UniProtKB/TrEMBL annotation, chains A, B:
InterPro entries: HTH_LacI, LacI/GalR-like_sensor, Lambda_DNA-bd_dom_sf, Peripla_BP_I. SMART domains: HTH_LACI (SM00354). Residues 2-56 form the HTH lacI-type domain. Keywords: DNA-binding, Transcription, Transcription regulation. This is DNA-binding LacI/PurR family transcriptional regulator. GO terms for molecular function: DNA-binding transcription factor activity; transcription cis-regulatory region binding. The lineage of its organism: Bacteria, Bacillati, Actinomycetota, Actinomycetes, Propionibacteriales. Pfam families: LacI, Peripla_BP_3.
Length: 340, 340
DNA sequence: CTGAAAGCGCTAACAG
DNA sequence: CTGTTAGCGCTTTCAG
């Protein structure tokens, strides 16, 4: 590998001059700059990352901690990771991939060894044991999610409360009076991954505000669970005409179950999903949905980190507003058209 | 951050002794070893990654290049990535995440700057422009997939030819005489991502060998495409009683389409899918399937890289044998029971 | 505007 | 078995 010294010799300048040409941290006569750049090209010089990191105290690497088992939809996670990598590259950083199973110790490891100079942690739970660790780490971090005690930390997330409310409002606006939230598996609520609970809060509050009946039930990922849950729901609340679904894997089975039960969508049952756009669009009928803006969250997360690394300050909490796209799966409830 | 010099002073030894205690690269009296270890603990010492990399010429980081847009099922990809990270950690390495859109230049960048000391490249196409680059790189790499010219490279993949054949054999063993392969979208074949073509090869060869009719058709990911494709297939070949599916996203729609067309599974139509186990098991009925051993491929990839890094040699091509699990979606063709 | 020189924190000969 | 020393390749004062 060619070193900075070789480039310097080739260009007839000092190594520091080469460094400064590359970093632009002091002004260089256009003459020597050109000469150095030609030498860099000619020799195919690439600065050694470790040497640079050691001397500058900056690895130019961000850690990305992804969940392993989670209620989170995998493609959304991947979209998110992709967005983090892409954005990091725009700021000349690379991304080190960590899995959540390394736990708090893993964060300490990469941070304290200066392998990375900032961290993005996904799928943060309400009482996440990594939160206190992050607070003590000698470098900035951004959490995707929203722990109970977020003091001194930077969090970014979709505004799930607003998302839940938006679904209710959409259905209420259409004239529905009885609706249900088909939620994530109960394990997700128990783990207190904030997002499921916050959606529920938004759903319940909005239902109250709009004066509609809003019932709620968790749902596991198997076909049988969906069938059983929906049957039970319709037995207990026969008047339900609208469903909000926050559980991507059951969307297919749910449509199937409704078909089996003889409920047409949207004539007999309106549906609004909280899911990725491509999932909503690939169903029959295409689903009205609130998108999880994975790409935007990733972008925001990295931009916040870079700002912090440069000494800037960022808001402690960024809640991205949800956007509801009405598609074919929601309409006025049949037989109630025109009712108040 | 505490340095090796501080640990050395605290323990009353030389810095090199601390280094040797940590690396175990030479024998240390149990007395000083204990003393050093106590100091390491007491001070909470973590070796600086850049300094270590610079001095030892080893970053202890592997690059993982993941595809962005691909015919590959995302959860499988994620499984794979997870396996790579987990295995890398077992060998005391970390993983740098790169996306395919950085192209060959991205590989050169991380390799020539010594950011990583080996690479895993996923979703390698038949005529992948990264292949010649990898060949020239001054460090080992492993490809997941199987390019046309794999000379001098190490490749690992599922044996898709065998997978295609195994599906045919399974159905032929059950007594089916006319079967079809529902493949990936035609774009995937055109991109010549080897796996789709190799499955097709195995399917066609085995059908010939077993003397059964084997027809083949690509299929896009939309519901309408599935409906259209299956209708066309059954119109052209009404005798078909068995389907091999290599296209994870259409599995749900396909089951739905068959139901609509009044074909029961497996009574009227047997199904074998090439997909992840959890997908096969979450369908109704549970699908007979050939698994993509993502976890094992990831493990194998990292182990090969580590072996190469240590100067060992590994086979140029490792094709992991497919494993078929018979579940509820395949049976003898009704009305043909007992026929030869 | 440029060069010389002092580290960054660690590893690995080399010497004893 | 342990210590001394010379780098690894770069950045960044300090001097001019």
């Amino acid at each position: 590998m060619v070193t900075i010294a070789e480039v310097a010799r080739h260009a007839g300048v000092a190594a520091s001059t080469v460094s400064y040409v590359l970093s632009g941290k002091r002004s260089i006569s256009s003459d020597t700059r050109a000469r150095v750049q030609r030498s860099v090209q000619a020799l195919g010089y690439r600065p050694n990352a470790s040497a640079r990191a050691l001397a500058s105290q900056r690895a130019n690497v961000l850690a990305l901690v992804v969940p392993l088992r989670t209620g989170m939809h995998v493609p959304v996670m991947m979209q998110f990771a992709t967005s983090v990598v892409t954005t990091a590259r725009r700021f000349d950083h690379d991304v080190l991939l960590l899995t959540a199973d390394e736990g708090p110790e893993g964060l300490e490891r990469v941070a304290q060894s200066s392998l990375v100079d900032a961290l993005v942690v996904m799928d943060v739970e309400l009482h996440d044991e990594r939160v206190p660790v992050l607070r003590e780490l000698p470098m900035p971090s951004v959490l995707i999610g929203y722990p109970a005690d977020a003091d001194g930390l930077t969090c970014i997330d979709l505004d799930f409360v607003a998302a839940g409310a938006q679904c209710v409002d959409h259905l209420a606006d259409l004239g529905h009076h009885s609706i249900a939230l088909l939620g994530t598996p109960s394990a997700v609520y128990e783990r207190q991954t904030g997002f499921a609970q916050r959606t529920l809060t938004g759903f319940v509050d909005a239902a109250g505000r709009r004066g509609v009946l809003g019932v709620e039930t968790p749902c596991e990922h198997t076909f049988d669970a969906v069938l059983h849950t929906v049957e039970q729901l319709l037995r207990d609340h026969p008047g339900i005409t609208g469903l909000v679904v926050q559980n991507e894997p059951i969307i297919g089975p749910l449509l199937d179950v409704l078909r089996r039960l003889g409920r047409r969508v949207p004539e007999d049952m309106s549906l609004v999903a909280i899911c990725a756009d491509d999932v909503a669009e690939s169903q029959v009928p295409r689903l009205s949905s609130v998108t999880i803006p994975a790409e935007q969250i990733g972008l925001q997360a990295v931009e916040s980190l870079i700002t912090k690394l440069e000494g800037g300050s960022v808001p402690a909490l960024t809640l991205l507003p949800p956007g509801l796209t009405a598609r074919a799966s929601s309409s006025q409830p049949t037989g109630h058209i025109g009712s108040p």
